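I am still getting used to backbone structure tokens and would like to learn alongside you. To get us started, please write out a protein record for me. Start from the sequence, derive the backbone structure tokens from it, and show both lines together. Once you have written the record down, we can walk along the chain together:
***
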Amino acid sequence: MYVGRSYKVIDFTLWSRRSVIYMVVVSALAVAAYRLPGITGFSVPWSVVLVLGTTVSLVAGFKNSQVFTRSSEALQAFAQITASSRMWSNFCRDFNDVPTARQLIYRHLAWLTALRFALRRPMPWESMGRAANVEFRRRYHIQEDSGSLANELPALLGEHSEAVLKSPHPEITLLEMQSVQVNTLFKDAKIPPQVYVELTKLIRDFHDQQARCDRIKNNPYPRQYAIVSSMFVMIFCTLLPFGVVPVFADMGKLGGALGPIAIWLTIPFSTLLGWAYMSLDQVGESSANPFEGNANDVPISQICRDIEIELRTGLGEVDLPKPLLPVNDIAT
């Protein structure tokens, strides 16, 4: 997630420069076609471009609105996980002996670890493999890229980590283990009924929030809408210079200082308009999957690290991991 005041214009331009290059090439072709002998005056009626541009605006706006909803829901899920984690820590510490509280809290941290690794795994429809995103990702680092669940779980679970790693879904297995231990504590009369109810509710809430995250991770923004939006944007941006070129050609007929070069103004103005549409679509596509690790995604690594520091501090520990600070104003 970008946490600076604003993206630098140069950074955004470099990220989206491929659309600028495409528009410059298409605009130059439009000018050349307009002057080419045999098809001199070739252009696309402006009314066609105008209607198509209106349609593209509506479709792109709908897509970006839905993408923002997905991103907001993902952030809300982790905000709820943070709140529930604090409650879990308080109940475990207040109503259990120190070893039991530590075991329950450390298993919860293991669940957070398993969850973030599951959410960071690449999916076929995600956009991190695109050249622009790969290039921009060199500016920051994702913790899960250099680590693995197998390396991190032993420090939290000890000898139980091997059994968890053998499970196809370690994060679900860890919640089930929490439920089993809480039930055992209640049956052995080590926690009062009211606390048992609250701990059970918290485990259910962890299941609910994990399900929300899994739904966002495992189900892409509907491909039919995403493809149609991107296709319409590309068609519009390709036809745009062919609709604009006669407007500037007519300006050249008026004479004056701009007369000889007026038609060439098609290139910068078409490029500017096309870049705006293509960048809008690029932003929407790169934000559609809020857990893949893009610069605008939910910073689940940082959130989980902050929760770990807070919960381990509550246990009285002093040898704590360092917070994950933003790199180049990007929190991960």
Remarks:
- The chain has a mean pLDDT of 88.
- The first helix runs from residue 9 to 15.
- DSSP finds twelve helices and no strands in the chain.
